[in-house]
Design brief:
Pfam families: HTH_24. The protein is mainly α and 160 residues long. 48% of the residues lie in helices and 11% in strands.
């Protein structure tokens, strides 16, 4: 209890059931990755270290620069074009990222474009709903599409 030391941090799920559900549907990559990302990006953007305080209530203190909080004078603000380009590139890279489950499905399709959902289920270790959910995600992102019927058809990877 108290302030969490990032050097000796060992992640554990406070609610293993919810943790497993989010990992299964591809909304969580791995245990503790959020804390690592928080520390990494807060250092980059505000040149400070966040504080995680564990107790009856879990608290996160994220120190921000004046530019971020809107307290900066006009002369202190970041150049707008640089910020716009940075945000644009960040969004593009974020779109390119896939969850572990999505990558698993892409790899199975690469190995065998005729792979069925049942075979994906057997080879991936994912649940039926996770397979269907992630296939729909990949379709909605225009990454894969199904050519032909379930039986006799195949998967096409539109963009990798």
């Amino acid at each position: 209890m108290g302030l969490i030391d990032f050097e000796n941090f060992s992640p554990y799920p406070k609610n293993p059931v919810i943790s497993r559900v989010f990992k299964e549907i591809g909304l969580a990559d791995e245990l503790g990755s959020g804390v690592r990302n928080l520390v990494k990006y807060v250092k980059i953007y505000s040149n400070a270290v966040p504080q995680l305080i564990e107790g009856g209530v879990f608290k996160v203190i994220v120190p921000l620069r004046k530019e971020v909080t809107g307290q900066a004078r006009k002369s202190e603000k970041l150049p707008e074009k640089g910020v716009e380009k940075g945000v644009e590139k960040g969004v593009e890279k974020g779109v390119e990222r896939l969850s572990e489950n999505e990558r698993t499905i892409i790899n199975l399709i690469n190995e065998n474009p005729s792979v069925s959902k049942k075979e994906m289920l057997e080879k991936s270790g994912l649940g039926k709903k996770a397979i269907e959910y992630n296939i729909e995600l990949l379709k909605s992102k225009d990454i894969i599409k199904r050519i032909g019927p379930d039986k006799g058809g195949y998967w096409e990877i539109i963009k990798e």
